[in-house]
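Structure tokens
________________
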Amino acid sequence: QVQLVESGGGLVQAGGSLRLSCAASERTFGLHTMGWFRQAPGKEREWIAAASLDRSGGSTYLADSVEGRFTISKNSMNTVYLDMNNLKFEDTAVYYCAARVGMTRGTYYSTDFYDTWGQGTQVTVSS
């Protein structure tokens, strides 16, 4: 069973940067999309980024709320990164990595598209 290990969260001042990493424990045949969500206290989980792990290249997607500030990238194996720049107080949340391993429904920006989740990492932006 694929497991996701996240790292890189922490406390940063507004305007600062952080990089989150998410490594899948193995590269199974079905692992082809990984994404990032975040959840602030009292709010629903929000999709912010996704990346196709297609070996021939793949695509990346960003939510409008983070476009121009966040970047999702991947390495040649099974790790995705979320580079967050010009962080704002409203970016404070628990950030979750997710992966689609099995045959699920939905689209890359919906939670039910993903069947494997990381434990979450806290990002706190001080104003």
In short: The mean pLDDT is 91. The longest strand covers residues 93-100. The CA atoms of residues 39 and 45 lie 4 Å apart. The chain has no helices and eleven strands.
